[in-house]
Amino acid sequence: MAVSKPVKACLVGIGGYGRTYLRAFDELREDGLAELTAIVVRNPAKYREQVQQLKDQGVRCFQRYDEALSDGGFDFVALCVPLQLHRAMTIDALEAGFPVLCEKSAAPTVQDVRAMMEAQDRTKLPVDIAYNMQNSSSLRALQKALIGGCIGQVRDIVVRGAWHRTDQYYQRSRWAGRAKVNDAWTLDGPVNNPLAHYLFAGLFLGSSSEGHVGGPQQVRGELYRARPTIEGEDTACIEATLDSGATVYYYVTLVAPSDNPYRQVTIDILGDDGSVTWKAGANESPILATLADGSSVEIEHEEHPGSTKRAVANFARYLVDESDVLYSPLCDSLRFARVSNGAFDSARQVQQIPADYVDEQEVPSNKSRPGGDKPTTKAYYLNDIIDMMKMAGDRGLLWSDAGVPWAAQTEPLFVGDYDHFPQAFKPAKLPWD
Description:
This protein has helices spanning 18-31, 48-56, 65-71, 86-95, 110-123, 137-147, 167-170, 196-205, 308-319, 330-347, 385-395, and strands spanning 7-12, 34-40, 60-62, 76-79, 100-103, 127-130, 154-162, 180-181, 184-185, 216-225, 235-242, 247-253, 266-271, 274-279, 287-291, 296-299, 351-352, 358-364, 376-382, 413-414. By secondary structure, it is of the alpha/beta class. α1 crosses α9, α4 (86-95) runs parallel beside α5 and α5 runs antiparallel to α10 (330-347).
């Protein structure tokens, strides 16, 4: 639905996932809701064709972020930049007078998020974090039903996500797979980046406060890397106890076979009186919860999938007072960061999985050479990881507790008032260090 006047935006970063934002703004311009009027591109020559097309549409192109903020002419900033830049760029936008829609995760560390929150408090401007699953109608309807007691008191939320990424994925940028870049924490891996949507969703479904994630009290984490060429984790499991009494179990990997049951991320919710499963991308209504007596409860919703377009559209409506909801406000990102950072401090380090448990292969790359030849890239596959995810999740155990041979025991950490990272974590050493 169009607003009286389209909300104008400045997009920072048009490469990589920024292309998704460009498509969203194209559609929202046609809908009369939001309009892209400025972009910030550090290296416009790299995106010459895209930049020219945008200029032809009347979009102003800046190479420097500070110049875009000074020039203005837009209503909010959309940030699609590396994780380690989120804090500074969000604060700069707020202090220049612009609301911010920031790509997930909000920032790598709790102190980063707290600094962003302090800037928000000073400026009284809204900030939303684009966790796309948070705007799916199924997830929000399910949370409301769980808080209403559809399966009794929620006890366990089991998140399982198994994706595959080759070395090509890690070569896309200098911060990919890194714990730090130029002394700034990035903590790039499935906890904070590609699968972060689903840790956030698990905390959301375990909450007793509608529209918000649960407050973590205690966290235990195990972090691993199957590939020896990254600092960050490519495989992890986390146990997080929430103030609602629920416990979130999070099992993720980026070294799974491409064809596996958790490629479509699955969240199983277990309560005193029954259970229900939510699957990413499964938007059919109703969701069916199964009760202990064999009967079922139908949870109706509007069948809206989570998307960048919906995140941008809602933020635009919020700015013109046509929505009173921010899907992922900064206060929730502080809770997420306490789980993420707490898991890193609990684990103390990213453990290297011995090569005996890892299958290393050369696979075709997505890129083509002149003449059409396909180069290859290296892929790693962690043996039996899907069976281990199922077994540990079914039993409510971390991998070390379940006897997985490459797993290392860790200690729980109280995170109710956790406010600084790191306390114990040290980045992994790379072979060439």
